Amino acid sequence: MISFIITLFNSGFLLFLLNDYFKKNYPQKYEDFIIQYSFKVIYLYSKCEILYKKISNYINSNSRFNEILYYYKNNKKEENDIEFIYNNNIILKTNKNYLINKNNEKNAIILPSKFDFIIYSESNNMNEIEKENVNKLIMYTLPTESQNILCEFSNIRFILIEVSFNDNKTIKIDFLQKNENYYIVGNIVNSIFIQYFLYKYYKKELEENNLMDLFKTQEIILNIIDHNIERKCIYFESRYIKFEKDSYEIGNN
User: Is the pTM above the cut of 0.70?
Assistant: First the structure.
């Protein structure tokens, strides 16, 4: 590294001496050379700018090119964005495009005949500063070909969420896990989903409270303080929570 810096310094110093020598001893030729070189640089810059504009116009006007560009840009994110969940485990991973157009696929895979629910993960870059946020849409049935699978933010955020069991042990949870967001319009949180959610994100707490063998059979109760600072108690044996855009619903199973 030091030898590279010394070489760079020596080269720069040599160019400085040569420039000074030609400027003093051949002023006219030096000036002509600088003028010609400047014109060539300006001409080259103009040509590059024109070429760049032509390429940009072609890309913007060519829908097929944009489709290809979009596919290769987003294909990696769209891989395995669908997960089939059964008994708190992922039993199949696929992607949204295949799931919607499954009947048109030549090399079709067999979808599970039995599953608890499906989770669709949609990446969302808010801006260059914020980290990528992954929104999670919960589906309890297979989507149809005409169904538009997308994640719409819910404006609801619970202030406090506690899961309690009938032996009075409690675990604090949150539906916003680091960069994974379950506050999505249409998401239904019921006992089956809560079991999966606890197993995925709070396995350590379950083990510490000796609940690993019991949380599937014990009644799960959710105590919340909602966005209006109201306390609610949801018994998941017979009820569920559904998120809307600016509200949430507590329904009966």
Answer: no
